[in-house]
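Fold this sequence, please.
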Amino acid sequence: MKQRRKRRKYFNWEEEIAKGNTNKFYNSTDFDIYREKVLERDKHKCQFFLGKWDDGKHKPDKIKVVDANTVHHIVPIKERPDLALELSNGISLSREAHEIIEDRINFKSRFKKKKRISKEMW
């Protein structure tokens, strides 16, 4: 478990997120606590690759057990800031699954290592 920062003053996260301060939210102690609770609830396993969560558009190629390290908001916090810390709005995902669900193009290229060809010197 990661060591948590000291709790700072209370923020009204609905107002902060509505203003566009999502980075402030994601770097907060409140989000750290929320993240830990969601990961504990899902036993640190990626729910996408287990086949337990379906967003209607994406499906895993095959069912496998993958460790989760990311928490995804099912309903985006920009749409519903009031659900930002609601446990039922969070799902544990692996980094790869999160990239798939967010429709980020070329997510596979980040995971592949490039081969380096060195010149043979005589």
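The CA atoms of residues 58 and 91 lie 15 Å apart. The chain has one domain: 13-106.
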